[in-house]
From TrEMBL:
One of its GO terms (biological process) is amino acid catabolic process. This is Bifunctional D-altronate/D-mannonate dehydratase. SMART domains: MR_MLE (SM00922). GO terms for molecular function: magnesium ion binding; mannonate dehydratase activity. InterPro entries: D-mannonate_dehydratase-like, DgoD-like, Enolase-like_C_sf, Enolase-like_N, Enolase_C-like, Mandel_Rmase/mucon_lact_enz_CS, Mandelate_racemase_C, Mandelate_racemase_N_dom. It comes from Actinosynnema pretiosum. It comes from the Bacteria. Residues 129-262 form the Mandelate racemase/muconate lactonizing enzyme C-terminal domain.
């Protein structure tokens, strides 16, 4: 089963996506997601200039060997651009292998451990009435777990909070199509004063059972995060995510020493090695990597199996800058791994779903990848061609005195 072609499609149906399609001599084709929000063309160049020439003529069935060939063979290891490119190749090869077998991918990965993947949606509001409306809307859409993000008095636009910026809902697409990144203002102490009261109000309104999640988006120091984790203990969070900047693994040890609030991190990681101290030290409860940014199905399976040895569960990253291809790959893993925790889910825009024809379903709060052979996603080239790439950047964050801070 030789590879005869590999092409990279960049399309922007509401936001930018980078997709790799690999085709074999028997006419089978597979898709992989290589989207790196705000740096899309770097991955496209890495694929087109350095990876595609290595793929043509290779055996499409040699998935692990190809992963190692691209990972070890480059000499320069890891990094988001490299690992997104490897992820796209790996996911496309798994798609082909499962199509060749006539099976949904989760069957090749060992079969389903559950009937569906519990998904959490993103509720937010600038104030409590808006937040309550958003939580109710998510419950009506069927969500059985909810991420809660809130505005902070005295601050303008805040990460994760729905607002209309330039006609776009902010929580749907924070990357704005401007010449330079939008700059936001941040005050961690104001945030820390406000958030516990919000969760107290949400529990009072919606009761004790609903799983609630919260994302700190890497903005706190370890001791600030420890203080927040402690303050949120009465409200029984499912997890506190991205409390501190991701590259400082030891920071999680300090947080862990002070709070029993479960901790999740890892969406900016791209390798199992980024988790070594976190997993062996049992410093976190959930791994947050995306299939798209962690070397594909192979890289993610390795990470989840490693985490499982230490009783740590999955919480695969799934915002809308993961394409429907990357999302489908996540859902197949969600079904197949024993240590599944929860799946992030933001619904893609209608335009995105015109380009990517998906088959996955959301029913009763559970996502299912469908039983279509392979990933169950097809790319409509004609529809993709109608949405050319447009440069977009994620925001930059500054403290009130102008210091650049983590966004
Ligand atoms: Mg996050």
């Amino acid at each position: 089963m030789r590879i005869v072609s590999a092409e990279v499609v960049v399309t922007s149906p509401g936001r930018n996506f980078v997709t790799l399609r690999i085709t074999t001599e028997d006419g089978l084709s597979g898709l992989g997601d290589a989207t790196l929000n705000g740096r899309e063309l770097a991955v496209r160049a890495y694929l087109v200039e350095h990876v595609v020439p290595l793929l043509v003529g290779r055996d499409a069935s040699a998935v692990e060997d190809t992963w190692q060939y691209l990972y070890r063979g480059a000499y320069w290891r890891r990094g988001p651009v490299t690992m997104a490119a490897i992820a796209a190749v790996d996911t496309a090869l798994w798609d082909i292998k499962a199509k060749a077998a006539g099976m949904p991918l989760y069957q090749l990965l060992g079969g389903a451990c559950r009937v569906g993947a519990l998904a959490y949606g993103h509720a937010s509001g600038r104030d409590l009435p808006e937040l309550f409306d958003s939580i109710r809307a998510h419950l009506e859409r069927g969500y059985r777990a909810i991420r809660v993000q809130t505005g902070v008095p005295g601050l303008g636009v805040v990460y994760g909070v729905a607002a209309s910026v330039g006609g776009q809902r902010y929580d749907y697409e924070p990357a704005r199509r401007t010449a330079l990144p939008v700059e936001e203002e941040w005050d961690t102490r104001a945030y820390l004063r406000h958030v516990p009261g919000v969760f107290e109000a949400v529990r009072a309104e919606f009761g004790p059972e609903l799983p609630l999640l919260h994302d700190g988006h890497h903005r706190m120091t370890p001791i600030q995060a420890a203080k927040l984790g402690k303050a949120l203990e009465p409200y029984d969070l499912f997890w506190l995510e991205d409390a501190t900047p991701g590259e400082d693994q030891a920071a999680l040890r300090l947080i862990r020493q002070h709070t029993t609030t479960p901790l999740a991190i890892g969406e900016v990681f791209n390798s199992v090695h980024d988790y070594q101290e976190l997993i062996t030290g049992r410093l976190i409860d959930y791994v947050r990597s995306a299939v798209t940014h962690t070397g594909g199905v192979t890289g993610m399976r390795r990470l989840l199996d490693f985490a499982g040895v230490y009783g740590i569960k999955s919480g695969i990253h799934g915002p809308t800058d993961i394409s429907p291809v990357g999302m489908a790959a996540a859902l197949h893993l969600d079904l197949a791994v024993h240590n599944f925790g929860i799946q992030e889910h933001m619904e893609h825009a209608a335009r995105t779903l015109e380009v990517f024809r998906t088959s996955f379903t959301f029913d009763g709060g559970l996502l299912h990848p469908s039983d279509a052979p392979g990933l169950g996603v097809e790319l409509d080239d004609e529809a993709a061609g109608a949405f050319p790439y447009e440069a977009a950047y994620l925001p930059v964050n500054r403290l009130r005195d102008g210091t650049v801070h983590d966004w």
